[in-house]
Design goal:
flat, two-stranded antiparallel sheet, alpha+beta, 30% strand
Protein backbone atom coordinates (compact mmCIF):
# COMPACT_ATOMS: atom_id res chain seq x y z
CA UNK A 1 0.00 0.00 0.00
CA UNK A 2 1.45 3.41 -0.95
CA UNK A 3 2.50 5.63 1.92
CA UNK A 4 0.90 9.05 2.28
CA UNK A 5 2.88 12.23 1.86
CA UNK A 6 4.43 13.21 5.17
CA UNK A 7 6.15 16.65 5.10
CA UNK A 8 8.32 15.60 8.07
CA UNK A 9 9.74 12.66 6.07
CA UNK A 10 9.34 13.84 2.51
CA UNK A 11 11.26 17.04 1.89
CA UNK A 12 9.96 17.79 -1.59
CA UNK A 13 10.12 21.29 -2.93
CA UNK A 14 8.31 22.43 -6.03
CA UNK A 15 10.53 23.41 -8.92
CA UNK A 16 7.65 25.19 -10.65
CA UNK A 17 8.08 28.88 -11.32
CA UNK A 18 5.85 30.94 -9.05
CA UNK A 19 2.97 32.65 -10.87
CA UNK A 20 3.82 30.94 -14.17
CA UNK A 21 0.87 29.68 -16.20
CA UNK A 22 1.94 26.23 -17.38
CA UNK A 23 -1.17 25.96 -19.56
CA UNK A 24 0.16 28.63 -21.92
CA UNK A 25 1.97 27.66 -25.13
CA UNK A 26 5.55 26.62 -24.51
CA UNK A 27 8.21 23.94 -24.64
CA UNK A 28 8.56 21.55 -21.72
CA UNK A 29 10.94 18.83 -20.57
CA UNK A 30 9.28 16.22 -18.39
CA UNK A 31 10.99 13.51 -16.37
CA UNK A 32 8.96 10.54 -15.18
CA UNK A 33 10.52 8.11 -12.70
CA UNK A 34 9.04 4.80 -11.54
CA UNK A 35 8.13 4.29 -7.89
CA UNK A 36 11.31 3.45 -5.94
CA UNK A 37 13.21 3.66 -9.24
CA UNK A 38 12.06 0.16 -10.04
CA UNK A 39 13.22 -1.09 -13.45
CA UNK A 40 9.78 -1.31 -15.02
CA UNK A 41 10.37 -0.46 -18.66
CA UNK A 42 13.16 -2.77 -19.78
CA UNK A 43 16.84 -3.38 -19.28
CA UNK A 44 20.19 -2.39 -20.73
CA UNK A 45 21.75 -5.22 -22.70
CA UNK A 46 25.27 -4.71 -24.13
CA UNK A 47 24.89 -0.96 -23.81
CA UNK A 48 21.51 -0.80 -25.54
CA UNK A 49 18.11 -0.28 -23.95
CA UNK A 50 15.78 -3.21 -24.61
CA UNK A 51 12.17 -2.24 -23.90
CA UNK A 52 9.88 -4.75 -22.29
CA UNK A 53 6.09 -4.79 -22.60
CA UNK A 54 5.68 -1.73 -20.37
CA UNK A 55 8.44 0.16 -22.16
CA UNK A 56 6.70 -0.54 -25.47
CA UNK A 57 3.47 0.87 -24.01
CA UNK A 58 5.30 4.09 -23.05
CA UNK A 59 6.86 4.24 -26.52
CA UNK A 60 3.47 3.77 -28.22
CA UNK A 61 1.77 6.30 -25.95
CA UNK A 62 4.45 8.91 -26.72
CA UNK A 63 3.96 8.66 -30.47
CA UNK A 64 0.18 8.49 -30.06
CA UNK A 65 -0.05 11.83 -28.17
CA UNK A 66 -0.51 14.00 -31.31
CA UNK A 67 -3.54 11.89 -32.28
CA UNK A 68 -5.25 12.99 -29.06
CA UNK A 69 -3.79 16.49 -28.67
CA UNK A 70 -3.41 18.31 -32.00
CA UNK A 71 -1.62 21.22 -30.35
CA UNK A 72 1.31 19.03 -29.19
CA UNK A 73 4.54 18.64 -31.16
CA UNK A 74 6.82 15.84 -30.04
CA UNK A 75 10.52 16.34 -29.50
CA UNK A 76 13.36 14.18 -28.31
CA UNK A 77 12.62 11.48 -25.78
CA UNK A 78 14.34 8.60 -24.07
CA UNK A 79 12.90 5.61 -22.27
CA UNK A 80 15.12 4.29 -19.50
CA UNK A 81 14.65 1.22 -17.34
CA UNK A 82 13.47 3.39 -14.42
CA UNK A 83 11.56 6.11 -16.27
CA UNK A 84 11.45 8.45 -19.24
CA UNK A 85 12.69 11.89 -20.25
CA UNK A 86 10.40 13.69 -22.68
CA UNK A 87 10.54 17.01 -24.52
CA UNK A 88 7.40 18.38 -26.09
CA UNK A 89 6.08 21.72 -27.21
CA UNK A 90 2.75 23.17 -28.16
CA UNK A 91 2.45 23.83 -31.88
CA UNK A 92 1.32 27.43 -31.27
CA UNK A 93 4.58 27.98 -29.38
CA UNK A 94 6.62 26.50 -32.22
CA UNK A 95 4.78 28.54 -34.85
CA UNK A 96 5.40 31.72 -32.86
CA UNK A 97 9.12 30.89 -32.60
CA UNK A 98 9.34 30.21 -36.35
CA UNK A 99 7.52 33.43 -37.22
CA UNK A 100 9.82 35.42 -34.94
CA UNK A 101 12.92 33.77 -36.42
CA UNK A 102 11.97 34.34 -40.06
CA UNK A 103 10.13 37.66 -39.75
CA UNK A 104 13.30 39.53 -40.73
CA UNK A 105 13.58 37.70 -44.08
CA UNK A 106 12.36 39.52 -47.19
CA UNK A 107 10.27 37.47 -49.58
Amino acid sequence: MPSKFDPQRHHRHSIRLPNYDYSQPGAYFITIVAWHRECLFGEVVRGEMKLNRYGEIVNYAWFDLPHHFRHVALGAFIIMSVGAGLFWATTSYLMGRLQAKFSCLKV
